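Reproducibility note. Readers wishing to regenerate the assembly model reported in the main text can use the exact inputs given here. Chain order matters: entities are listed in the order in which they were concatenated for prediction.
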Amino acid sequence: MSTTTANKENISEKKKDDKKVDVKKFTLKTPKGTRDFNDKEMAVREKLISTVTKIFKKHGAVTIDTPVFELKEILSGKYGEDSKLIYDLQDQGGELSSLRYDLTVPFARFIAMNGSKYQNIKRYHIAKVYRRDQPAVAKGRMREFYQCDFDIAGVYEPMIPDSEALVVMWEILKEVDIGDFIIKLNNRKILDGMFQVCGVPEEKIRPISSAVDKLDKATWEEVKKEMVTEKGLEEEVADKIGEYVKLKGSKELVDILEKDLNFSSNLKVKEGLSEMRTLLNYLEVMGVLPSVSFDLSLARGLDYYTGVIYEAILVKSSVDTSGVGSVASGGRYDDLVGMFSGGAKIPCVGMSIGLERIFAILLKKTKPESIRATETQVYVCGIADGTLLDRMKICSELWDAGISATFQYKDKVKLGQQFKICERDQIPLAVIIGSGEIEQGVVNLKLQYEGSKQVEVDRKDMVTEIKKLLNIA
Amino acid sequence: MSTTTANKENISEKKKDDKKVDVKKFTLKTPKGTRDFNDKEMAVREKLISTVTKIFKKHGAVTIDTPVFELKEILSGKYGEDSKLIYDLQDQGGELSSLRYDLTVPFARFIAMNGSKYQNIKRYHIAKVYRRDQPAVAKGRMREFYQCDFDIAGVYEPMIPDSEALVVMWEILKEVDIGDFIIKLNNRKILDGMFQVCGVPEEKIRPISSAVDKLDKATWEEVKKEMVTEKGLEEEVADKIGEYVKLKGSKELVDILEKDLNFSSNLKVKEGLSEMRTLLNYLEVMGVLPSVSFDLSLARGLDYYTGVIYEAILVKSSVDTSGVGSVASGGRYDDLVGMFSGGAKIPCVGMSIGLERIFAILLKKTKPESIRATETQVYVCGIADGTLLDRMKICSELWDAGISATFQYKDKVKLGQQFKICERDQIPLAVIIGSGEIEQGVVNLKLQYEGSKQVEVDRKDMVTEIKKLLNIA
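Running the prediction on these inputs yields the following structure tokens for the assembly.
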């Protein structure tokens, strides 16, 4: 992000001529942790969003929209200690509001508020959220960023919506083509049961779970140290946990764990393993099992998960993705809507695509000069002065025919300059006219690649011929 | 907007069973002046936005994105007395920021900040803005609403970009099909010159101009009264203004006004009339002149306009559009960027599409039951229990082929129920399987309209046959 301070000299110089100029000195920047996106960056972002949206729609999802800010009380008590990162609106009279921190709580509020109408909904929502976190621009951690959520609410047979959410995640990660990935899978029921089996006291289960959550970045020794030294867990208990969290695999791991009767006789573990068996079976049928790893070390930070949890990470990419972390994640949260609806439980499962992280990787993979910010197909050129009105007329005909076309905003034109614009903006076809052509009722068409020959066509056939050359219906 | 208060009874009842349930009483609503949009409303909004975007792109426009909030000092001093409507973020340490009030000031800030890189840009921006105005839900005036802007920045020959902005406005209003419209045109130079010619004192030009701006809603008598009684204008001067502001027409009005030497000898008027002549000429060439009315009563509220101004209003529609006001508007603002860049002038012309107003009209025109919120093409039905895995497998094949497909999330299914879902969601094609079909390696396809016959096809030909039936490539 560039920061420019208005040039004071210029201002005072200018001031002599024109009293109207505002002499206030501006620091031209966006607020900390926010940024602009220019035309080329937006072209990459829009293509990504359109890819993701297409896949959501392919799975029959609808979209809803909620306001950028919510009543403060709706958000409070949902994000644990991270609540301090919520942006509040100033109290200017009336209700106290805050910028949304994620899209999940507004979604839960929407479902609870609409009573029976949206108790079954498969919805996606791609929109900006706000966190007053310490920005890390290099890592792509901003205070304003997109979230991209897909959630299925409703009472269904176990693991069916969960498996479709995972298939959607898998399809998107395949399609955006940022590298090879695996999706780690676990289940909060198994985790909680595992902590019970290992002897973790009830009140320490959440803190110990959040220590386990660090295993993707830290070694077991570091995590164990945190458990024992910081969180006061007995070393023996930590060592038992250590044996389990190193386990990962696929369907066979479910078998192994079920045979471990000390483990699988725990009721939570039992329920969790049964869910995993069903889920892995469905994933196999839908062809995504090879990309999935049942991983007992996956814990996920958020408090509200109640069942299956998952997280996709890159294992190979053509660009440096170190420090990127997960590129998609989610899980089942059966109790969140109930917090709003006054107890009426609406089970939900969902996932978030890490749009900003994927965008950062795509941008690294793409040469800036290869990005087209416009979709212009035709540039209408004049050979000589005095063709402005005819170029306008031709553009107008092309626009009527649905063809994207532009022309130079001047009457005294030079052909070379216009061709340079074609090249710079990668416009594939030029229409060329001079006074001769206008008189004879013809135009010249030239595809903008090396060796392409200029062809003269009748003015009345122009649109048809252009469509043929550009291969558009 | 419905407002629901969580049922206290339910909560206490529930509390006995489950201590985890949050007993806090929520008022479930969105903040004043904001609202949710449900799936069907979003389908209408997205179609509208996609239509508008397509036309912007057809004219070679790019898009940029700016943050939802800006530094407070960037916004202050740009909106006159309406600055009191700006939403401020609470001071939580760090910079003072405010929610954006429009997209024009952030655009000017973006251009000024990027130095020479974006001195020539044709950009659109469709995004939400925020105003702490008194909401009028019935009129569609909200505190959070979309703006949809198209602007051309850069030094060009007079009236060329202005005419394209008007053509874009015209194409969009044609395409969204909300009724017959006219685009009123005027020029700030003519207005200012007119006030000079009539003898309005310099310091009263803005207040008198904003009185003229009310002529679309008030009679001349009411406006005159405001001028004379409230704003202290001499009655004789007001009467002179009254003679001019009733004038409207097309190219011939320019001729008439130029022949009025008392009027056209004013330097501002002269310049303005010359611009109007050029502009109307360009608009004629591009075929939109019949929809345009040069109207001396058009004044436009915003301070920053410096040249051509315009406003589109509906003159006929199939639904009640009374009180809707303008559905698109804009003008030239040559000095705004200079306020940020420290005097370096970057001329701009632009226009806003009244997306929220058009959306409200489209919603009135559309029967809710005719709106499809999903794009699902195929529903995969089971004749009997035990077909879940096969329905999953078939869906997965269809997804791989890019076909939008869903299935019922249960194993014990009833065909009648599944057909009802097809009907409710307007899904055009059903794939039907039972255990017999699975064994024989076939599926049944049935288009969901009265009298369509079920056809049996080989499982391996399923995708091809479905594409044929649905007419997709």
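We highlight two features of this model. Residues 186-299 of chain B form one domain. The first helix of chain B runs from residue 8 to 17.
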